[in-house]
Design a protein that fits this description.
Blueprint lengths: L1 H9 L1 H19 L6 H25 L5 H30 L6
Helix pairs in contact: 3-4
C-alpha cells in the first residue's frame, strides 16, 4: 500500500493532467454538433493509427522477459485496432446515408 501512495505522490502532476484531459475531452465531445461528427471520427481514426504504431514500437523495445510490458503492448495494439476498424465502419455507414439511392 505504501508503494501505491508513493507512486501517486511522485506522479501527482501527471495524474492531475490525465484527469483534466478526461474532463476536457468529455466536454468537447459532448458539445460537437451532429454535422461535424463524421470528420471528427475520421480524425480520431488517424490518432488511433498513431497509437497502434506507437504500441508496436513499444513492444519492439520491450524486454522479452517482462510479461507486463508485452501484455500491455498487445492490449494497446488490439484496442487501437478495434477502435480504428469500428471508427471506419461507423464513418462508412454515416457517409452511406448521404449517397443517392438507386
Amino acid at each position: 500500500m505504501a508503494s501505491v501512495a508513493t507512486f501517486f505522490l511522485e506522479n501527482q502532476e501527471m495524474i492531475f493532467l490525465v484527469i483534466l484531459a478526461i474532463f476536457l475531452g468529455v466536454e468537447v465531445i459532448s458539445n460537437v454538433p451532429a454535422i461535424l461528427h463524421t470528420p471528427l471520427m475520421s480524425g480520431s481514426n488517424a490518432i488511433s493509427g498513431v497509437v497502434i504504431m506507437g504500441s508496436i514500437i513499444v513492444i519492439g523495445y520491450a524486454d522479452p522477459n517482462d510479461t507486463l510490458q508485452l501484455v500491455l503492448g498487445l492490449l494497446a495494439v488490439v484496442l487501437g485496432t478495434l477502435n480504428v476498424v469500428g471508427g471506419f465502419a461507423v464513418t462508412g455507414r454515416m457517409l452511406a446515408m448521404f449517397k443517392k439511392r438507386k
